[in-house]
Amino acid sequence: MDLRNLGNSGTIVSEFALGTMTFGAEADEQTSHAILERYLEGGGNFIDTADVYSAGTSESIIGRWLARNPGRREEVVIATKGRFPMGDEPNQLGLSRTHLRYALDASLRRLGVDHIDLYQMHAWDALTPIEETLRFLDDAVTAGKISYYGFSNYLGWQLTKAVQVARAEGWAPPVTLQPQYSLIVRGIEHEVVPAALDGGVGLLPWSPLAGGWLSGKYRRDEPPTGATRLGENPTRGMEAWEARNADPRTWEIIDAVDAVAQETGASASQVSLAWLSDRPAVTSVILGARTVEQLVDNLGAADLELTDAQRERLDEASSPHTDIYPYGEQAVQQRHRKREGGR
Q1: Which residues belong to the active site?
Q2: Contact predicate 298/287, CB 8 Å
């Protein structure tokens, strides 16, 4: 597995991170620990969790695994998140100093560690001044509670504002942004990816298989059944069955992935993950597995090298829908300038 810098920091992480949202929900503790072991055996070193995953259970499962394997702590880079509700009171959520102080300490306790390598703000908080959040994070870095910080689900202007405020105040800068990103969900390429490149921030894509759509398990006009995320809940979140099944673009993408998979002898998941890992600004792609078998298949993407023609085929099929303005071809041309002059 390739190794890369964690955004603009000096810490090194594997090109595929282990997402643990399934821990304590779709994977019990024994399975979760087996997934952790197999991930490390495959060359991975970057574990991503959040306080809100199964109401703290995911962090606790990782903490117990670390306690049983004390030598592993120095081998892994641990990332977690805070922001979403961990209770019903008004200060038990958000990015205020009040909430983040309790949230960070609670994550440290559940994980059983003295510091967190990457602490991420799970979403924007319109009620808290960005200066308050950034100053808290800078203080946490200075105190040694966290090594770095990043964001998740921020828009381009929100990321840019955070980068510029941190620079202006002389505070520690953000190093990463965790957005939803896949062959099916490419809208972040309009604003978020350019903002990340401008700010020197590495991307950590979540849902790289679009909730299972890019794994090859679903078929056109055949509602999913059985032990899959959509089989158990066809209306689940952003990947809900009806809307995506009705969009011709979905099946154009899946057909292109299947064609490349046949050419390479790889699985559809491996093709989709290999494409994403090579995108601009991407530091590490977050894998979410509920079984060891799923993880093993996903890790195979590290050995897959797509040709330029295969990438172009996937790019063309998955090109994001745009309005004529401000992201259409002519509007994009307006934002560029020829060195030699002229139109």
Answers
A1: 53
A2: yes
